Amino acid sequence: MAITKLRHHDNCEVKTERVYDSPHYARLVCRDHGVHIQWLGRAEYKQIVSWLYRKPHREYTNQG
Fold it and tell me: How far is residue 36's CA from residue 38's CA, in Å, rounded to a whole number?
């Protein structure tokens, strides 16, 4: 699935990194190639983080 318009990293694992010494809020990094993909604004960062790091929903049943 494509996260950005840059198609080269479509099948790569990516991560987000907050940037504190830049006018940008965060950046998207390719884990497979170890390279910067694109800068992210706050809204983009929060959307991607919620998608990348969401925890799977588990249903618990009473086995007792």
Answer: 6
